Amino acid sequence: MNFFRSQTMGYYKLIIPRESAWNVMNELAELDCIHFVDYDPTLPMINRPFANYIKRCDDLLVKISLIEHEMKKYQKKITYCKDVNFLIKNFKQLIKERSKASHTYLDEIENDIDKKHQQLIEQSTNMENLHERRNKLIEHKSVLLKGEALLGQSFFQPANYVAEGYVNLQGKELDDIKVLQGSVKFNYLVGVINKEDQIRFKRIIFRITKGNAWMNTMDIESDQIVDTKNDDAKIIKSVFVVVYPGGGGSNVITNKLNKICESFQVAKYTFPENNMIFQEKLRSIETELVETRNLLEMTKNQVEAYLDDFQRVYQNSNCSQLEELKLFLVKEKYLYTQLNYLRVQGSVLYGSIWLPQGADIKVDQALREVQTNYEGLPTGQLQISPPEGTRPPPTFFETNEVTWGFQEIVNTYGMPRYKEINPGLFTVMTFPFLFGVMFADIGHGFCLLLLGIYLCVYNKEIKESDSLMKHALIVRHMVLMMGFWAFYNGWIYNDFMSVPINLFGSCYETQPVENPRYEDEQEWVQKDQSCVYPFGIDPVWMCVPNELTFMNSYKMKLAVIIGVIQMSFGIILKGINAIYFKNWIDFIFEFIPQLTFFICSFGWMDFLIIYKWFVNWTGKTDEAPSIITLMINMILAPGKPVDPPLWGDGQSEASTQTALLLIALFCIPIILLPKPLIINSQNKKHHAQGASNLTENLNKDLYQKINEDSEGTQENSEAHAEQSGGGHHEEFGDIFVHQVIETIEFVLGSISNTASYLRLWALSLAHGQLAEVFFQMCLNGGISSGGFVGAIRLLIGYAIFSMATFGVLMMMDVMECFLHALRLHWVEFQSKFFKADGYAFERCSYAKVMQDNAVPKEE
Question: CA–CA separation, 337 vs 457, rounded Å?
Fold first, then answer.
């Protein structure tokens, strides 16, 4: 079972001649089954042999992204690749048909992209310049037209004389200022400013001139001026006119206004001296505008012609030319990245790889195909080799659409060790179940179940659409299973949005009380002593005064039972791991005492809960003992007769509890002491053997060192040093402290982890109470009122009820239950056996890296 334990790995040496390195790697990357071992992880990528090729690919990808940006700017449709395997075959066939060396195709692609990119940049720059010129002409034209409308014809007439001094223009209208024009020389400032800066501009001018200036503005049509630096977005600008008294360009007010315009980056224009010049200037601007528009249209057509070439889907292709070029560059960059993991020595590349069991046949076949397809090129060699260094093999699980999401939950916490039991296998079953225990509701669970069914049935249609549901497709099976278990557990709790369902007929009926405290007082009486509600909880328990007490007690005990069972199973998995790895120290001195301790303490508590459920306490509920009291007295009052007892006279129960307590306490020193003592003894023995064999192995060490220097392998020396007894071993103090921490964590963790499973009860309680509050506040009033008013209240209440249910219970509570189920698996369950210190098998795969880049990024 490859999902129970990771696939068996083999360690191999790969030898590739440099002249055929591209062809060999191109074949191997299509296999999806090779994990390349980096020969020197500390060496930066920039110092590796093929770093220059990677940089070239990065530069070309940047240019492709700029072209893609232009295509989106001009609203050109890009056909993205939906089948990367088809594209990989096309690349392979295209390169095979060329008469040149395979790796030189990148040079052709580079020249083609550079040429087209340069042409596009030139045309885009011309477009920007033309747009800037057009904007200036439109602004100048608007200044003339709007300025004339604001100033009028009288401002073309020269003043008779210049009056120096202060003229108060505050609060005056333009007509009043025109009256003064005959005796006072007025300066004017005309320009264009962004509309969003108008208010600030006016305020500053008012403060600088102290009200000794008149200003007015008029907006330019919003669809005329474009921002060339922001994808040709429209800019709203306004023409402003400032009139102020003064007698020349050296005027103090003039200097201050010029500085203000510079700070706001305002475009200033001069107003014609007379009407004749005004008309000539206007005609000249109009002529230039027509020429600029024609040039813009021609340049735009040229740019679109370039972009159409990138948009086109060529024959034997399934995507646009731009997308094809991008994915080819991604493929080339990935190929050279993998080649950088190999060590170059002369004209040969040496590397180490991990292969799953049986994959070596595929690699040998691929190497033979290189020699067959490319005549005259030498192929690579694959040689089995013992693993180097102390690092274990990578972990690899073959997942499918169902198991992928659950395996990601495990991998997010940590990658399993090589050949360690995979928690993902059990997470597939337990994660949706624990979620369902917390989210248990027939109605809400059914809604989640319907969503899962919809995502599974219509996944192809949703994938091809632009629906937001597309992002949930990857976990559609998880949603389906979570909805099923929430629906199922809703029937167990008999809870339909806080309303019980009497599906099978209750085992209780009402009858009058013998001595009623008030008129028509009734009580619930069991119809038949042997009557049992067929499935779930009898709905009568939702109608009695002690409903909350009963349901809390039931859900709390059920949560503890589920938790103890799951954690016990986790400890059992630890023992299975110890047997598989033949780690008998862990099996004898950790697994056995830990399982014994857990069963004698919390397993005993589960036994008491279940035994109490099997006893009929009808008529003697006062004699029923409290489970919590029994567990407390087991520790604080060992040997004392139990009163009231769960069975017998209480003495046998007390004796059993005392025996279990002694066994549990005896297990603690067994967990703590033997393991560090044995490991310390083994370390001393190995160290002594290494010292005695040091002289004997000296020549072997020297020979090994020479080989390592010639091969450049650092890991071999470390592995051989440890094998020859020179490796570092832990001190006894470190081992003992580590074991003390492990023991305390297990003993105290058993208590805290068991209490942590009470979240199954707490979340279920919160869900049920929220549903009940929404029902009572939104629907119950309308149902109780009846009539027309009740119908209106019910209609309004139902709308509020629906929104509250969707927002709080179907969104927030789903996320809350999901996170708590995640916590129970990561902390409570997996901590019992899961080390999570492995590393993933990184497949060398064209398909994977191209698929990741074929998906368009969200804007």
Answer: 40
Average pLDDT over residues 474-486: 95
> Rounded distance, CA 492 to CA 359, Å?
48
Residues listed for the chain: 859
**Mean pLDDT for the stretch of residues 153-179:** 47
| pLDDT tens, residue by residue, 223-232 | 667 776 666 6
Q: Alpha-carbon distance 387 to 354, whole Å?
A: 9
23 within 8 A of 368, measured Cβ to Cβ = no
**Alpha-carbon dihedral sign for residues 472, 474, 475, 476:** positive
Is the pLDDT assigned to residue 153 strictly greater than 80? no
Rounded Cα–Cα distance for residues 461 and 463 (Å): 5
Residues forming beta bridges with residue 192, ordered by sequence position? 239, 267
Per DSSP, the residues of 595-612 read HHHHIIIIIHHHHHHHHH
Kindly state the DSSP code that residue 350 receives in the 8-state scheme: E
The helix/strand/coil state of 714 is helix
Q: Which residues contact 398 (CB under 8 A, 6 or more apart)?
A: 2, 3, 7
DSSP states along 570-595: HHHHHHHHHHHTT-HHHIIIIIHHHH
- pLDDT level of residue 16 (50, 70, 90 thresholds): very high
- For residues 128 and 296, give the distance between their C-alpha atoms in angstroms, rounded to a whole number: 9
Q: What is the Cα–Cα distance from 820 to 828, expressed in whole angstroms?
A: 11
**pLDDT for res 350:** 94
Task: Work out the burial of residue 810: count CB atoms within 10 Å of its CB; fewer than 13 is exposed, 13-18 middle, 19 or more buried.
Answer: middle
Q: Are 202 and 215 spatial neighbours (Cβ–Cβ below 8 Å)?
A: yes
Residue-wise pLDDT for 776-825, tens only, equals 888 887 777 777 888 888 889 889 989 999 999 999 999 999 999 999 99
Q: How far is CA 847 from CA 30, 87, 88, 166, 327, in A?
A: 7, 9, 8, 80, 10
Q: Does residue 432 have a cis bond before it (omega within 30 degrees)?
A: no
DSSP code string of 173-199: -HHHHHHHTTTS-EEEEEEEEEGGGHH
pLDDT one-digit tens code per residue, 723-768: 334 444 568 888 999 999 999 999 999 999 999 999 999 999 999 9
Instruction: Tell me whether residue 352 is exposed, middle or buried, using C-beta atoms within 10 angstroms of its C-beta: 0 to 12, 13 to 18, 19 or more.
Output: buried
The candidate with the shortest Cα–Cα distance to 339, out of 776, 721, 709, 23, is 23
Sorted by sequence, the CB contacts under 8 Å of residue 174 that are 6+ apart come out as 150, 151, 152, 214, 216, 243
Q: How many Cα atoms occupy the beta-carbon half-sphere of 291 within 13 Å? A: 8
Query: pLDDT tens across 504-525, in order?
Result: 888 888 877 777 777 667 777 7
| Cα gap 835→837, rounded to integer Å | 6
What average pLDDT does range 92-121 have in this prediction? 89
Q: Do 91 and 331 touch, CB atoms closer than 8 A?
A: yes
Closest CA to 142 of 276, 267, 292: 267
Task: Quickly state the pLDDT bin for 205 (edges 50, 70, 90).
Answer: confident
Amino acid of residue 656: T
Beta bridge partners of 35: 354
Average pLDDT over residues 482-509: 90
Rounded to the nearest angstrom, the gap between the alpha carbon of residue 347 and the centroid of all alpha carbons in its chain is 43
* 384 within 8 A of 36, measured Cβ to Cβ: no
Tell me, what DSSP letter sits at residue 822? Answer: H
Joined together, the tokens standing for residue 167 give: 């003229």
pLDDT of residue 695: 46
How do beta strands 348-356 and 35-37 pair?
antiparallel
Q: Which of 15, 16, 37 is nearest to 716 (CA)?
A: 37
What three-state secondary structure class fits 36? strand
Q: Which residues contact 836 (CB under 8 A, 6 or more apart)?
A: 413, 414, 415, 416, 417, 830
